[in-house]
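Researcher: Quick one. two chains, 932 residues in total.
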Amino acid sequence: MSAHPAEDGGRRIPRDLHPLAWWAWALALGTAASRTTNPLLLLLVLGVLGFVVTARRTEAPWARGFPYYLWLALAVVAIRVLFRCVFATGVTPEDHVLLTLPRIPTPAWYAGIEIGGPVSLEAVLSSAVDGLRLACLMCCIGAANTLANPKRALRVLPGALYELGVAVTVSLSVAPQLVASAQRVRRARRLRAGSGKGVRALRGIVVPVLSDALDRSLHLAAAMDSRGYGRSGTATKASRRATGALLLGGMAGLCAGLYGLLDGTAPALLGLPALAAGSALCVAGLALGGRRVRRTTYRPDPWRLPEWGVAGCGLTAAVLLCVSVGYDATALNPSLYPLSWPALPVVPAVALLLAGAAGVLAPPPGRPPAAGPSPRAADDRELSEVSQ
Amino acid sequence: MIRFDQVGVVYHGAREPVLRGVDLHIPEGELCLVVGRTGSGKSTLLGAVNGLVPHFTGGTLSGRVTVDGRDTAHHPPRELADVVGVVGQDPVAGFTTDTVEEELAYAMEQLAVPPDVMRKRVEETLDLLGLADLRHRALHELSGGQQQRVAIGSVLTAHPRVLVLDEPTSALDPTAAEEVLAAITRLVHDLGVTVLLAEHRLERVVQYADRVVYLPGDGTVRDGPPAEVFATTAIAPPVVRLGRLAGWQPLPLSVRDARRAAAPLRERLAGLPVPPVRRTPVPGARLLDAQRVVVKHGRTVAVREVSLSLTAGQVTALMGRNGSGKSSLLWALQGSGARRGGTVRVDGRDPGKVSAAEARRLVGLVPQTPTDLLYLETVDAEIAQADRESATGLAARGLLDALAPGIPGGLHPRDLSEGQQLALVLAVQLAAAPPVVLLDEPTRGLDYPAKDSLVGVVDRLAAEGRTVVVATHDVEFAAAAADRVVVMAEGEIVADGPTPAVITASPTFAPQTAKILAPHPYLTVPQLTRALPNPAPTRPEATP
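Model:
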């Protein structure tokens, strides 16, 4: 992991990787992490994530979030361990007892859960590793969010789902606006000496914020309408009905198929065949719906060799950890009895390092902001609106 | 290009039509200015051009509106997107993406413009509006003027033949407004786009207009060349009022024309004593004393060791570009805003250290968005709530009627006009009887009559022995309303003195009357009337 991103910056043309490639890579790595409770492998996953994020993230606002995911991960581990200590589950004779918390008596109807009692090293370790695995999954999602612009990811939705994508994009931008206007109103409430506590005070904030949001969404709707959003294109009533029917049938098929797969007692026909039929219907519906949409994409993200490489190395790691070929499957989930230092299985470790190659395979991030936020722009805004 | 045939618009539940019998023809390539009081139907007229009225707003439209041969009855706004581009008052409210480049491409994506054409048009538009350096920047990082230019660019990329702009500069400071208006005039002259523009601050735009559409408020419309229409309108910028008063023919519309016509008038003024713009304030007691106030937002210093004292009976205008620290200073003086250092004393107490209820009895502040303070369903409920909150025995209803008589108590506060909302919030704040009253940008979105009545309100507050501070960008308003002007830049006070001295010090900052009559120190048209009761002796019938 010594390769430095700056080294290949000169050879390759910087550009943003297709967002789906990053998502595929991150989800695959998450799948791999969920297969193991080996702390060494989990730490390796975190290391790989850290390397790739530092090497390939952009300067955009959403790309500054990875440290927050790390803190969140740390909090998850801490909470997990804390709960395991407080809600003791008893100890076996071969456990190493670390300390004994005072026991709090629980009522009879609450039997089965004890609060306090002896805390063993094994319990702490197993909860820490469990927490670490969860933390790894969260960091994978975080890395995807950091590396790929979430809004650009939504743009690759099939044409028929375009409206859905827009709705999500808009609602994403509404959240920060709501926070800003709530802060503004709360501050303004002080001017009126915001009388009362509880419901009344809440109303004083909620009503102006919501009417603000409503005003804004009407403006937005009008602006989108007058810029051509939702032009009907060439859809006929029949084709719209057909699309609806196909999608509905497809969804039903998918549900039945999933149910069949998960419930072992269900008839075999409900399993894979229903799932396949459902998927086919959905794809057909989307394709038919997409045909009526007349829209083009500005500077679409290309899918080229680096995209294949990034997605591929992630998927390879996931597959290697799922099939457990060439190594002992128990190495993935080392036992805590007897307590011993876990071994690092070679094949999974190499697989995870392979996933780390994404940091080198992906081109350096492109299109940096021209000169960063200029001081002039910051001055121009009414400061009080921005930062209180 | 745009044709209205006997158009009438009635909204649901309204007794009177907003527009009736409108016949209007706007030929291609004209910059047409839409003028009228708040609520006279300007927005309805503009909305009807691309079918937002009635397709989006509801209501009934009679008659026929055609744009480029397309009837809006059969074409909803989205089907007209390639012909008409619409830009609203608040650019941020209309943004759908998050970077400049994507926003410019949005309309084209909807219209299914081929990718290579899109690419080319985005580059052209970036150059046309001077946005090339900002192409990858996030929209929320831009200044107001830049945002508005992006909003204009984002409709322009669809190559519309008509551009409809509803008060595009009302939320901007003078510099940003100039930026946007320069961009608009460039479009008219270089591309031959037909522009329909509504604007309150007429002094900024009259000179560019080829035609004026005037809505007197009864639903009818009058249109013609600017000099003709403005001869009689109830709403007119200072240059036009001065021209009418002096009886100049043809009516000058720009400072340049007026100055050329004003030579004889300036000669006549030469020997005459200059009457004061306003009654001279009686020096009163010192009501507020602030020393070395510091406000920081994060690492930015918004207010840098500002000292300011305010005396009773005085109206102070606080001016300066956006982000110069005006709002932060007002909030810090009121005590609700953050203050990093310095002292504020009102009546021996520090409004930042006492409870919120106590602070508002010392200093009353009306924020930039007055509606933030309103949360009840009716005006009456707000009034009653204000009486309960302040418990001073002052009836807020009485205050409101003094400020803006005749607001029905059953109305929802959000249905009031901007001027009425401002009056309501001011009444709510005055119910606590504060000796110091601060108004943050109250002139935003007000038309001339509303601004005139605000001048009266501010005068009355001062006459009652309060001190009033008005943060504003509007130099005409400052000239008419303020005794003293304080100018801020980068968090510091750069000028502080009597209004005439400060605002005539630089030609760019001066009100129109001062520019026309310089070197004579006249600031407003009423002041001139007092100096010369009959400025146009040859044509006395021309005075309004």
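Residues 5-149+303-386 of chain A form one domain.
Researcher: Thanks, that's what I needed.
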